[in-house]
């Protein structure tokens, strides 16, 4: 298992930058942060919290910078990923942060990834500008979706179907994350309702899932959030249509009650079987 380490800015900047070659132009973490800080200052944004995670001896990093927004419960977010070993291209996305738990909402990767060649720094600079330009619109979209999720009741079977799909078919969440979600679902929490509560909503489910995504590998962090947001958005569409969103099972499929009521180690041998999600 690859170890993930939480680091601060000084440690992020201290990671040795690889040598530039004719075919590879590394983009330093400091260049990325300096550009982000400049854009935030230009837009008058106040930084409230930041987090940096590294893996592969610092060769892979993901950064989350959270800024004060107009909504008291949600802030603006910029998330980026970068690598020093050519394993991943730079990527950046804009979204929002739920203040009570610092969980993220990321709708989509705002700008394209790119290979670290040629005029890399200039292109990365442009991509960061594009992300900030899209940030406010994306933030307002997230506030609207948050309101819809809060107003949408969610059955236990529906929540299990969403998570089962993310685990088995999308492979967005790992068995470790699945355990975190299961624990969160059954725990009394002043911020989000447990799954057996009559007040359990799609917003509660969303945050239980994104809480587990804090264990994501840096290279997967942004895409995992996008995948979860897509799954919950699809649930909203289905809910509005009046169609029950649950996982159908047969003798050849996994029953969702077995999936979450049994221990993870009892489930893993059955991972090769199929899950069918009805539209």
Describe the structure.
By secondary structure, this protein is of the alpha+beta class. The chain has helices at 9-14, 29-42, 120-150, 156-169, 175-185, 202-212, 221-241, 256-261, 264-267, and strands at 4-7, 47-55, 60-71, 74-83, 91-98, 103-106, 247-248, 276-277. Helix 3 (120-150) packs antiparallel against helix 6 and helix 6 (202-212) runs antiparallel to helix 7.
Question: What is the strand and helix layout of this fold?
Answer:
Elements (H helix, E strand, L loop, with lengths): L3 E4 L1 H6 L14 H14 L4 E9 L4 E12 L2 E10 L7 E8 L4 E4 L13 H31 L5 H14 L5 H11 L16 H11 L8 H21 L5 E2 L7 H6 L2 H4 L8 E2 L2
Antiparallel strand pairs: 1-2, 2-3, 3-4, 4-5, 5-6, 7-8
Which features would summarize this protein structure in a list?
6-stranded antiparallel beta sheet; alpha+beta; 279 residues
Number of strands: 8
Approximate helicity band: 40-55%
The ordered H/E elements are EHHEEEEEHHHHHEHHE
Tell me the structural class. alpha+beta
Number of helices: 9
Indicate the low-confidence ranges by residue numbers.
247-279
Lateral arrangement of strands in the main beta sheet: 1-2-3-4-5-6
In percent terms, what proportion of residues is strand? Answer: 15-25%
What's the multimeric state?
Answer: single chain
Largest sheet: 6 strands, antiparallel
Separation, N- and C-terminal Cα atoms: 35 Å
What does the overall shape look like?
Answer: globular
Radius of gyration: 20 Å
Average pLDDT value? Answer: 81
